Prior knowledge:
Distance between the termini: 37 Å
Oligomer: single chain
Strand order of the largest sheet: 4-5-7-8-11-9-10
Amino acid sequence: MRVVAGPLAALAALLAAAPAIAADWTTVTTPSPGPVRVIGKTAQGCIGGARALPPQGVGYQTLRPARLRQFGHPDTIRLVEALGRWSAAGGHGTLLIADMGQPRGGPVPSGHASHQSGLDVDIWFRRAAQPLSDAERAQPLAVDMLRPDGKTVDPARFGAVELALVRQAATRPEVERILINPALKQAACARATGDRAWLRRLRPWWGHSAHFHVRISCPAGQAECEPGPAIPPGDGCGTDLAWWFSADAVKAALERFKPREPAPPKILPAACADVLAAP
């Protein structure tokens, strides 16, 4: 029996995880009961006991409420609320909060590979001078920070307030990283003054020119949470950033976005099956 104990244990774990792969996480409309549990990775995980971000608060509003993607860890909720208060206090308008996660996290059918464990939130660069109506929230209009060429920053759109908003988010202690368009990272590197340590958290990524994607670190006490890869030292404004404007980056983008057969679904941690099955 000792010889097969390892394989049997592995098989049991696989079978426990299997329902989490096949289930449609979008059909679950409420968080699971009990304490908050961040399980797995942001691109391969789930969250138990998630909290809902109120549809509006001081200095912010949520977008596309029908998608039910305004759930996350309490630290993620507090981050959004803090940024909203900052925007309101500075007279910068209402922040528009796009996707966080589903009521129990897990994979979404479109739009994201991550946002699965309650630690991610998309924040639009566009801010509303007046609170949006329900109809405007249901079908909001994004504003791209790049020129029509899709390669260079429009300084009339990505101005001092937009840069200050990103900096405000990047200097929050709970924030692990921020995904942002390479051209916007380049603009931040060029314009930043004083302490530049926060620039390290701005990680260039494809897209992300109408919004920035904030990810917080694994919260304290969440032993089932798997952190992401470590961020390299330095402000990230040198060789690593230059790659994104190279011929190799163009080739990588063509490879990344070329049509292909859908990848098989990832196996979620076994604990996610319990989260999904909870009443």
